[in-house]
Design brief:
Layout lengths: L1 E2 L15 E10 L21 H13 L7 H12 L16 E15 L13 H4 L16 E17 L3 H14 L13 E2 L1 H4 L5 H11 L14 E12 L4 H16 L14 H10 L23 E4 L10 E6 L12 E7 L5 E9 L5 E5 L2 E5 L28 H9 L2 E2 L3
Antiparallel strand pairs: 1-3, 2-4, 2-5, 3-4, 6-10, 6-13, 7-8, 8-11, 9-10, 11-12
Length: 422
């Protein structure tokens, strides 16, 4: 149905300033999961929420910045996007960028559990939607019986900003449309968007790669060393997406990621994993009566793709018992490190699609191993993904990778994507 949102009064006026008005007509490519007040539930009355869009624009603006002075960065961010407190004042600063969302048309699809209690999402990438499986009602502790996805949506977005900020705002919008989205799990392609006017600029993946380079700040830390996620020194790769159904293309692409993370699950249904991480836990806990480690030293390469990483050995007889998590240092209070890996599809000008993998420049934190929610031990520096030169990602009876393989190079290879020319 069509909904009109009342214009949001500007918290600050543009009196005396020359202003720019930027209009966009945007449509959804892949389903939106979540985006409302409750986890993984959309706001069915107001599916495209202004604060969520502004939060995405703020994030992508940050990825373009220098990080030499956090204080200066905070001041500049507050001047454009607003902030609770600035260095020169204890009072909040109003945003100079005003968003107005109108003409929202959306269609929802309800996902139900089957007779076995499993959420039925066979038409979508299961590896992306899997968090829905275990969601429980907070009051009754029973599994939530159904979830709603927004499967189709179009809306108009009008942005007003001071003229001197127009370029930065426009670049932030383009990055959001290319690599961001609406709702949860956008880094795995949920809620991807398309704007015909914006995409006239991008005829192929190389054009997008050039735009990413244009948005990147200079004099930035080397790849994997930035304290905050940046485009600068990051990596961008892509491959053709075959067909005209964006959801089908997305599903096929994310199936490759699933197979990579789950040790080629399509080919291997039983047996121990070849990934180094499982043996890393065996070696640190010194429990391997059943399965002698294939690796001589611990190594945790899957931490490169985001934290926490959860592990549970299916047969505890002779293997470490309980549930294990690899977390950032300080994991009792800091459990997450957002994945620097962004996987999604992009619709180019015309009706062509590409699969993309964007690696943001972000430091992988030092690691700790938790067992049953309690700290077991610090993970040695030599076992950290940054020390990939000394290790193999995978090793086993039937599968062995070369020593010194970068976890991100291995990901590109598994996804079948090629890095854009610099």
């Amino acid at each position: 149905m069509s909904r009109k949102h009342p214009p949001i009064p500007a918290p600050n006026s543009f009196a005396g300033e020359k202003k720019s008005v930027l209009p966009y007509r945007i449509q959804l490519l892949t389903p939106v999961m979540g985006g409302g007040v409750k986890s993984f539930c959309p706001d069915e009355t107001n599916p495209i929420r202004t604060p969520s869009v502004k939060g995405q624009l703020r994030f992508w603006w940050r990825t373009m910045q220098q990080v030499n002075s956090p204080e200066e960065l905070m001041q500049r961010e507050a001047a454009i996007w607003g902030g609770a407190v600035t260095l020169d004042s204890n009072e909040g600063k109003a945003s100079s960028v005003i968003l107005n969302i109108t003409e929202v048309d959306s269609v929802n699809k309800r996902l139900e559990r089957d007779e076995k209690g499993m959420m039925d999402y066979k038409n979508f990438p299961g590896y992306v939607l899997f968090p829905l499986q275990g969601q429980k009602d907070k009051n009754s502790s029973t599994l939530i019986p159904s979830f709603t996805l927004i499967t189709s949506c179009s809306f108009s977005l009008e942005i007003r900003c001071p003229q001197e900020m127009q370029k930065e705002v426009e670049m932030s919008v383009k990055l959001w449309l290319l690599f961001g989205g609406i709702g949860a799990r956008t880094t795995r392609g949920c809620g991807s968007l398309y704007c015909e006017e914006v995409m006239k600029e991008f005829s192929d993946g190389e054009a997008i790669g050039q735009f990413v380079e244009k948005c990147s700040s200079v004099n930035s830390p080397a790849f994997g060393q930035s304290p905050v996620p940046l485009l600068a020194q990051g990596r961008f790769a892509f491959s053709p997406g075959y067909g005209s159904d964006p959801v089908k293309i997305w599903k096929e692409y994310l199936e490759k990621y699933k197979n990579f993370r789950q040790d080629d699950a399509k080919e291997k249904k039983f047996g121990r994993t070849s990934w180094a991480d499982a043996d890393g836990i065996r070696l640190l806990t010194k429990k391997y009566d059943k399965h002698l480690p294939h690796f001589e030293k611990p190594y945790f390469p899957r931490a490169a793709y985001g934290l926490p990483v959860l592990y549970k050995f299916k047969d505890n007889k002779g293997d470490p018992e309980g549930t294990f998590e690899v977390r950032p240092v300080g994991g009792k209070t800091r459990t997450r490190w957002p994945s620097p890996v962004i996987l999604k599809i992009i619709r180019l000008s015309g009706d062509n699609y590409i699969n993309v993998c964007l690696l943001l420049n972000s430091t992988i934190p030092d690691l700790e191993l938790f067992q049953n929610q309690s700290l077991h031990s610090a993970i040695p520096q030599d076992a950290h993904p940054r020390n990939w030169c000394n290790h193999r990602l995978q090793k086993g009876a039937k599968k062995e990778r070369e020593r010194g393989e970068n976890p991100y190079d291995a990901l590109f290879k598994a996804l079948g994507v090629k890095e854009a020319k610099s």
